[in-house]
Amino acid sequence: MFEYAFMQNAFIVAVLISLVCPLIGMFLVLRRYSMIGDSLAHGSLAGVALGLLLDLNPILSAFGLTAVFGLLIEALRQRFRQYAELILVIILSLSVGIAITIISSGAVHANVESFLFGSILTVTRQDVWAVLFLSAVSLAMVVRLYPQLVLLTFDEDGAKIAGVRVRLINYAFAVLVAATISVSIRIVGILVISSLIALPVAAALQMQQGFRRTMELSVFFSFLDLMGGLFLSYWIDAAPGGVTALVSVAVLLAVILWRSGAARAQGRRRA
Q: How far apart are CA 1 and CA 172, in angstroms?
């Protein structure tokens, strides 16, 4: 199947996604921000629609507008401290309203469904370069901000006392989440990006390892989910987004069952 150019492009993008998504997802899950990632994923549809309207690369336009929404979420956190869930409703209303208005106006004639559900047929070489650029920037920022992100994840108040510029790091992290979502929309699709951000991390957490080891395991599970979804979607001729989400859930359930069986076996040996 790799004799086809679209499969080569899809494979390269899938490998990059499997690196970026769990790294950002690890911090999102541990900070209880999983739903923020899901809201921004749906918000990226507005960026895609705007890019198609203005004849721009949809991945880069999705990154730009999703980054704006991410910064807006962080800014609104200061005003809605007691009602944080309202922020997600505000962002979803704004982003989905923009997307529906542009798409329903008839001004966009491109196939929007490929961005909703993912498609291995529509990944172009231009998309590969855009994803490569955003992935490189994301990985570089994670490496550069790693100590501050870890400290913020476990003790935000302690980070402030330690002199970490918490607000600036949070804004930078919002941009990182936007970049992660943008690199994923071509393969996985907007509707199920959250499965790649959260489920590999959830599977890795079942292994009950240290932070760094859990992060490594989440990358492994993410790669497993994406490769399984990519190959299965090719063979059954289905959208890779839905297949990848199902594979992610199956892997998570398999890990949970394996850990439960191992725990019971260990308990019987001790008895």
A: 39
Do 240 and 120 contact (CB within 8 A), yes or no?
Answer: yes
Could you tell me what percent of the chain has a pLDDT over 70? 97
What the block records as the tokens of 196 is 């790649």
Tell me the range of 122-131, 203-212, 236-245 where mean pLDDT is highest.
Answer: 203-212
- What domains appear along the chain, each with residue ranges and CATH number? 5-191 (1.10.3470.10)
Whether residue 32 contacts residue 201, with contact meaning beta carbons closer than 8 Å, is answered with no
Instruction: Indicate the pTM of the whole model.
Output: 0.83
Handedness of CA 129, 56, 112, 45 (dihedral sign): positive
Give me the count of residues in the chain.
Answer: 271
For 97, what's the count of Cα atoms within 13 Å in the CB-facing half-sphere?
A: 6
Distance CA(270)–CA(259), nearest Å, equals 17
Measured in whole angstroms, how far is the alpha carbon of residue 205 from the centre of its chain? Answer: 17
Per-residue model confidence (pLDDT) at position 194 = 81
